[in-house]
């Protein structure tokens, strides 16, 4: 099976222009180069028989050895896709240069789906409304011609075309394309060992996402913790959990995966498609949903987790804890991470700053250890015990 990579030659002013500003055109081109090389190297390390780069422009010294290059042909992108597939044939899996977080395992898993006897095609949608990967057993010019490209419904239009052609299509996990600085920061966090992530850090384009409140309070989001393996401190707390467990605001799913690997029944819940794509990729059982939406297994969980300041979700800790109580079985427990003694509990209106334009304002809360007991009591919980470890503070709350 071939791996087709559609790409532009990374020249300043012609690629990643939405990164400018804060990037210069030269920096944007360097980031595009890094993303393209990461993608091609991942392809070379995958099980693909050959990596074929369908290139608009001329190759440069960035081109890894062993990659076959063919020119893109056609006016619109739908024509260029069609011609690339005609030149290469099937079966094949096709990607672009905007997802440097792709690794050989993810590519191999995607290509392996085409070996399933009940599938003719596979597609992975992107968070911006497009798609990041598409595989076909057989090349067919009808797949792409006339499908609207580079718009917020390209992905679903492509799915509809596959359906109209009667192709049995499997869905892959969603991924984030790098279009904006916020995308670049998110992808660099999820794939910190890539050339792309290294250059994001080197250029100083983001110091990491933060929540900044209207009163000037800054809450740094510890993304290096979110995407790493659980620490000894976290694992020690997980030792005391009883399943089934629900992790609220699970992010990339590190705690969910750790519990699942221990044989616990566990579910992670989060609203971030990017984080959940990473979680699913590593095998963590997660669900894209608000804490306040209906969740499978309500009233039957024995333990609920609110780590990393997630007690602040929604800006009303009492309302959040009441929601947690509804998720728990009688006598169930919530493991909550709080701020150290001396930090006052307060409601905030914050914006997410991740290197680009800040988000819209949304409510958040800070809960200190000193004020937790009264908040818990109003929500129907009692404080069972408090734990301090490695500078972090946790509280075990028991539902009355």
Task: Summarize the structure in words.
With 400 residues, this protein is α/β, with parallel strands linked by helices. The chain folds into 2 domains: 2-199, Alpha-Beta Complex (Spore Coat Polysaccharide Biosynthesis Protein SpsA, Chain A); 210-399, Vaccinia Virus protein VP39 (Rossmann fold, 3-Layer(aba) Sandwich), CATH 3.40.50. Helices cover 29% and strands 27% of the residues. The chain has helices at 25-44, 77-88, 104-112, 154-164, 181-190, 195-202, 223-226, 232-238, 254-261, 273-281, 317-327, 372-378; strands at residues 2-8, 50-56, 68-71, 92-95, 121-126, 131-136, 169-175, 210-213, 218-220, 245-248, 266-270, 286-288, 301-306, 328-338, 346-353, 362-366, 381-389, 392-399. Strand 15 (346-353) and strand 16 form a beta hairpin. The longest helix has 20 residues, at 25-44.
The count of β-strands is 18
At the fold tier of CATH, the topology name of the largest domain is: Spore Coat Polysaccharide Biosynthesis Protein SpsA, Chain A
Number of domains: 2
End-to-end span in angstroms? 58 Å
Rg over CA atoms, rounded to whole Å, is: 23 Å
Query: What's the CATH class of the largest domain, please?
Result: Alpha Beta
Largest sheet: 7 strands, mixed
Q: CATH superfamily membership of the largest domain, which one? A: Spore Coat Polysaccharide Biosynthesis Protein SpsA, Chain A
Structural class: alpha/beta
Helical proportion, percent range: 25-40%
CATH architecture of the largest domain: Alpha-Beta Complex
Q: Which stretches are poorly predicted, pLDDT < 50 over at least 5 residues? A: none
Mean pLDDT value? 90
Instruction: Summarize the helix and strand pattern as letters.
Output: EHEEHEHEEHEHHEEHHEHEHEEHEEEHEE
Largest sheet strand order: 3-2-1-4-6-5-7
Query: Which percent range describes the beta-strand content?
Result: 25-35%
Shape, principal axes of CA atoms: elongated
Number of helices: 12
């Amino acid at each position: 099976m071939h791996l087709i990579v559609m790409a532009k030659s990374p020249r300043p002013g012609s690629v990643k222009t939405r990164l400018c500003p804060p990037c210069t055109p030269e920096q944007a081109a360097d980031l595009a180069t890094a993303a393209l090389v990461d993608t091609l190297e991942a392809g070379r390390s995958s099980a693909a028989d050959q990596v074929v780069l369908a290139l608009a422009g001329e190759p440069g010294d960035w081109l890894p050895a062993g990659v076959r290059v063919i020119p893109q042909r056609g006016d619109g992108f739908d024509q260029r896709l069609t011609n690339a597939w005609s030149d290469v044939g099937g079966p094949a899996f096709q990607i672009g240069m905007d997802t440097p977080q792709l690794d050989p395992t993810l590519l191999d898993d995607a290509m392996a789906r085409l070996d399933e006897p009940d599938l003719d095609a596979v597609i992975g949608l992107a968070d911006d409304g497009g798609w990041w990967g598409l595989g076909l057993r057989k090349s067919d010019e009808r797949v792409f011609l006339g499908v609207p490209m580079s718009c917020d419904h390209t992905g679903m239009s492509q799915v509809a075309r596959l359906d109209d052609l009667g192709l049995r299509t499997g869905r892959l996990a969603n991924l984030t394309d790098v279009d904006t600085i916020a995308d670049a920061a998110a992808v660099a966090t999820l794939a910190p060992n890539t050339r792309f992530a290294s250059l994001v850090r080197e250029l100083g384009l983001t110091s990491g996402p933060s929540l900044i409140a209207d009163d000037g309070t800054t809450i740094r989001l510890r993304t290096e913790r979110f995407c790493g393996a659980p620490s000894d401190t976290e694992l020690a707390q997980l030792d005391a959990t009883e399943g089934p467990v629900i992790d609220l605001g699970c992010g990339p799913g590190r705690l969910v995966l750790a519990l699942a690997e221990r044989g616990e029944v566990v579910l992670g819940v989060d609203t971030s498609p990017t984080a959940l794509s990473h979680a699913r990729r590593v095998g963590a059982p997660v669900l894209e949903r608000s804490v306040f939406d209906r969740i499978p297994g309500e009233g039957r969980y024995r333990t609920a987790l609110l780590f990393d300041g997630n007690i602040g979700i929604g800006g009303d800790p009492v309302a959040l804890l009441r929601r947690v109580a509804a998720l728990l079985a009688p006598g169930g427990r919530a493991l909550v991470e709080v701020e150290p003694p001396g930090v006052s509990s307060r409601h905030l209106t914050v914006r997410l700053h991740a290197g680009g334009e800040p988000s819209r304002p949304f409510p958040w809360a800070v809960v200190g250890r000193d004020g937790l007991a009264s908040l818990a009591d109003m929500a129907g919980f009692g404080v069972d015990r408090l734990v301090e470890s490695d500078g972090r503070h946790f509280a075990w709350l028991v539902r009355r």
